[in-house]
Amino acid sequence: MAAVVIQPTEDVTEYTATIKRETLKEGKKGRHVIDSLRLTLKAEGDDSTEATASLKYNRNKNILTTDIVIPNYDVELGIKVAGVDSDAKQNNMRGITIEVTNKNIPQLTVMGCTRLELMKNAMLQLQMVIPALKTNMLFTATLKKHVDIIMNMETLIKLPETSYQQSASLIYDKETFEVQLKSDLNSEIQKNLPNVEDHRKNLEKLIENMLDRKVAKTDMKVRHIVTKGIEAVNIWLGKLTVSIPILKLMQNKRRLSNLIVPSLPERMFLQFDNLFRYKFNKDYMAFSLPLPLGGKKSEELHFPSSLSVPALDLSAIGLHVPPKIYRLPSFIVPPALDFTVPLLGVAEASIKINSNFYSLEGSISGGNHSIDSPMYIVQYKAITNSPFNLLIYNLEGTGMMSGRGDDHLEYLMNNSFSHSLIQTRVSISETLDVTHKLHAKANYKIEASSPLGLHTSFHYDAQSTSTIYSDEVTGDGTWDGTLQIDVMENTVTYSRNVAQTDFIYCYGAITEVLRCGPSHLHAGQKVLVLVIPGNPGVVGFYRTFIQTLYDLFGCHHPVWAVSHAGHCMPPASMEMVEDAYSAADLDTFGLNGQIEHKLAFLRKHVPKETNLILVGHSIGCYIILEIMKRDPSLKIRKAIMLFPTIERMTLTPQGKAVTPLLCHMRYVTYLSIFLLSLLPETLKHSLVKLVLAGIGSLDHSVVQPTVGLLSGDSAANAVYMAGQEMRKVLERDDMTIKKNLAKLIFYYGATDHWCPVQYYRDIKKDFPTGDFRLCENGFRHAFVLDAGREVAKMVAEWIKTDLRI
Fold first, then answer.
1. Hey, which of 532, 649, 726, 792 would disulfide with 548, CB 3.0 to 4.6 Å?
2. 493 band by pLDDT with thresholds 50, 70 and 90
3. CA angle 394, 421, 241 (to 5 degrees)
4. Tally of CA atoms within 13 A in the half-sphere of 684 that contains its CB
5. Helix, strand, coil share (%) of the chain residues, nearest 5
6. Going by DSSP bridges, is the β-strand pair 149-159/162-172 parallel, antiparallel, or unpaired?
C-alpha cells in the first residue's frame, strides 16, 4: 500500500491518492486467483470528490476487468477484456472479448475469435454490438482446405430499421476456380423518415394552390389555361399523326387531375449478386525453348573439373586450414527447356442487381468448347427492368469460331438489342475452306426498327476464291438494303461480282473461264459479252478489263473470258488434256484447234438464243473472224477488234524478230521455258516483278498469271500456237469482213509493232464505210498490263446501245 500527497488549491484543501494491490480468491472454494490493483483519488474541500479506478485480472479465465467510478459526475464505467483459449479437439477456439458498460448496462461489445485446425480448417469471426444504437455488426471468414480450397466471408450489419449483409465465397479445385459476391441492403425508409408522407402531401397541396390561382385581369385560373393548352397540342398532333406516325408517341394522354406526387415505398432494397467461374482445360500445349550452347558438354565449354582452395595459416591465433581440392561434376547443357501451358478453358461472369427503381441481370461466358476440332464460343446477355421505360432494354448475343486455319475455319456472331425506342439485330458469319485454293464465304445482316417510324435492313452476301501464295482473287458479292421512314420507303440493291475462275475440259483440253456474273447461262439470258484473248491466252491478264466492263454495265450483263486450250496451269485434280491421243489428232493447241475450241465452248455453254458481243484482242480478233465464217448461225450482235493481228504477221516489225525463234528454233525456246519452270515460285515472282518493273502504272493483277505461265506446259502451248500464227495468218479475210462489216469495230494502235499503222490505213481504204479507229491515247499492244480499265471504259461506250435488247 502506498500514498501520494498532492498540493491543495483554494477550493481543495487536500488531495489523497491511494494505490492498493492485492491478490484475491473468488469462486467456489477460492479456485480463481484474482490479481487486483485499485487506485483511489480523493479531493477534500468545499465540494469533496472521490474517483475510483480498479483493475482485476483472473488468472484462471484470462479475464481483465477495469472499473472507473466517479459518483459526483454520475460516471460508472466498466471495461471487460476476456480471452478465449480452448484446446478441446472439437472447439480449438482462441479469441478475445472487450465489453464496455456504464452502470452495469452494456454500451459496446467487441468480440473476435479464430480457429485453426492442422492448417486445413480456419475460421475468423469479429463482432461489434452497440445496444444503445440497436447496431450489430458481424464478420465471419472460414477456410477449408482438403483436396479443394473453399473460403467464405460474410458481413452482417444491423442498424435501426436497416440491415446490410454481404458475403463472398471462393472455391478452387483441379477443375474450377469460382468467386461469388453477394450483398443485400434493406431499409424501412418510411420508419427512418417518419414525416416524409406529410411532406409529400404538402407538396401536392402547394401545386394545387398554384393551379387554382386566378390570372390577372381575367376570371380564369392557371389550371384552366394549362388544361386547354394540353388539349390543343393533342388535337394538333392527332391531325399530323395521320401522315407522320412518329408524332403519336408525343401525344399526352394524361390530364392534370391525374398528376400526383409519387410516394416513397415502405421498404427500400438494393441487392447485388456477382459470380465469376473459370473451368480449367484438361489439355495442355507443350513447347520448347532452345537454349544457347544446347547439347554442349562441360569439357567442350572448358569448364573446370575441380576447384582448389589454398591453405590458410594464421599462426598468430593458432589457426591453420590445409589446402583442399573440390571435384566439380561434369554436365551437359540441355538442348531446350520444355514447358507445358494449359489450353484456354471456359470463363463465365454474371451480375444481378435488384432494387426498387432498377434491376439488371447480365451474364457473359466464353472459352474453349473444343471436342474433335477447335471451337471457341462467347455468349452474353443483359436484361433490365425499371418503372422508367427509357431504362428498360434487352441485349443478347453469341459469337463462335471453330475449325483450323489450314483446313476449315468458321466464325459467326449474332446480336440483338431491344428497347422501347429501337430494336436491332446483327448477324455475321464467315467460312474459309483450304484446299489447293482458299474458298471464303461471308454473310452480313443488319436490321433495325423503331416505333418512331424507322425501319431499315442491310444484307451483304459474298464469296471468293484465291490461289495460295498469289495475288489472284475471284469472287462475287451482293448487298441490298431497305430504308423506311414513316410512309416513305426506299429499297436499294447492289450486286458486286468479283471475277470467278473455273476450270473445265473443252475440246479435250484444260480451259480456264473467268466469269463476272452468273457462272451458268439460262435459256432466257439475252446478252453475253465474251472476251477472246491474244497469245498467251491466259484469262488472268484480263481480270481488270472484264471486271470494269461488268461494273460499267451495272452488273446486269455477264462478262466472260475464255482462255485458249492449254494456256493455263491445271489444278491438282485435273490434267492438261483428257486424252493425249485425241488432242494430238485434233491438234488442239494449234491455231485451227483453238478456233474449234472456241466454237465448242459456245455450242456447249451458251444458249443458242443468247446474243453475243465478242471482244477480241490480237490473235483473238483472227479467231472471231473465223468463228463468224465457220458458224454463221451464231447470234453475234457486235465484235470489237482490239489491236487486231489478222494479216501478214511475219511482215510486222515484231513478227520479223520472233519468227526465227518460233518457227526454226522452237525447241531451244522450249528448253528455256523448261529451265524457267524449275525455279522456285518465290524466285519466279521476283523475276516477273523485275521484268515488269519498268511499267510505271502496272496492273498488279497480271503478276500471278505471268508466274503461272512459267509452269512449262502452258508456255510451251503458247509458243506452239504462235509458230502456227506466223505461218497461217497471211492474207486478210476480206470476204468475212465485208459480210459482217456492220457488226465490226476495229481499234488499231498508233505504235503497235504487231499491226502497224499502215495496216490501219489499208483496211480503212478498202472498206471506207467500216468502223476503223486509231488509238490516240498511247495504249500499248499488251494493254492489259497497264490500261485494262481505260480500254474497258472505251469499249463499254461503244457497245452500250447494243446492250439495250
1. 792
2. very low
3. 150
4. 21
5. 25, 45, 30
6. antiparallel
Cell numbers representing residue 559 in the block: 462478262
Cell numbers that stand for 176 in this block:
474450377
In tens, the pLDDT along 8-40 reads 666 777 888 889 888 888 777 777 888 888 898
Q: Which of these is catalytic: 564, 597, 685, 781?
A: 781
State which amino acid sits at residue 747: Y
755: which 3 cell numbers?
A: 499491226
* Residue 759, phi then psi, degrees to nearest 5: -65, -35
* Bridge partner list, 115: 93, 123
Tell the residue number behind the cell numbers 532452345, with chain if given: 290
pLDDT on residue 533: 97
Amino acid letter, 404: R
Distance CA 429, CA 407 (A): 17
CB 562 within 8 A of CB 513: yes
Catalytic residue among 563, 618, 701, 711: 618
Closest CA to 270 of 157, 357, 355, 385: 355
352 three-state secondary structure: strand
Give the type of residue at 453. Answer: G
Catalytic residue of the set 476, 699, 713, 752:
752
Question: Can you give the pTM of this predicted structure?
Answer: 0.53
Contact 510, 501 (CB under 8 A): no
* DSSP-assigned letters across all residues of 452-479: TSEEEEEEEEEEEEEETTSS-EEEEEEE
Q: Is 664 a catalytic residue?
A: no
Q: What is the pLDDT of residues 108-137, one digit of tens each?
A: 888 888 887 766 788 888 888 888 878 888
- 618 is annotated as an active-site residue: yes
CA distance 512 to 504: 7
Distance of CA 371 to the CA centre of its chain: 23
Planar angle of CA 231, 235, 238, nearest 5 degrees: 135
Residue type, 710: L
Q: How far is CA 579 from CA 117, 584, 588, 712, in A?
A: 87, 9, 11, 19
Q: Taking 50 as the threshold, does the pLDDT of residue 494 lie above it?
A: no
Beta-bridge mates of residue 144: 121, 150
